[in-house]
């Protein structure tokens, strides 16, 4: 309804040079460990600030890695995807589908979802507190003397 699923303006290629600490990010997902419901893709779960990806700045937590050095990560187990990253060499080309800021079915650990849940919990806590105070005041003023 909002355009073709196959149009991918948010797919980018990112070239990284492996540093002393590797590529500097962690991945989740795979056919055996789905991170997103009905999606066996490989996702970036954490980026180390001083690692190659963190210093480059283009890769973000929640991004989906489609390929590494031309090898598609679709339908791979988590272990085989990790092995592709470990043996990729010093210069690594990633094809990445950038997370959409308004994407409702994104990874459960993506940053926007964490940020939006905290204020909601605060509002619920305030409402519960207000209800408790109102209930106390109601009971205090409407209690019948013995």
UniProtKB/TrEMBL annotation:
The chain crosses the membrane at residues 120-139. It comes from the Eukaryota. GO terms for biological process: cell-cell adhesion; establishment or maintenance of epithelial cell apical/basal polarity; receptor clustering; receptor localization to synapse. One of its GO terms (molecular function) is protein kinase binding. InterPro entries: PDZ, PDZ_sf, Synaptic_Scaffolding_LAP-MAGUK. Its main location: mitochondrion. The keyword Transmembrane applies. GO terms for cellular component: basolateral plasma membrane; cell junction; mitochondrial outer membrane. Keywords: Membrane, Mitochondrion, Mitochondrion outer membrane, Transmembrane, Transmembrane helix. It is found in: Mitochondrion outer membrane. Residues 13-100 form the PDZ domain. Binds (via the PDZ domain) to isoform 2A of SYNJ2 (via the unique motif in the C-terminus). Interacts (via C-terminus) with RALBP1. Interacts (via PDZ domain) with ACVR2A (via C-terminus) and ACVR2B (via C-terminus). Forms a ternary complex with ACVR2A and RALBP1. Interacts with MAPK12. Interacts with DLL1; enhances DLL1 protein stability, and promotes notch signaling in endothelial cells. This is Synaptojanin-2-binding protein. It comes from Scomber scombrus.
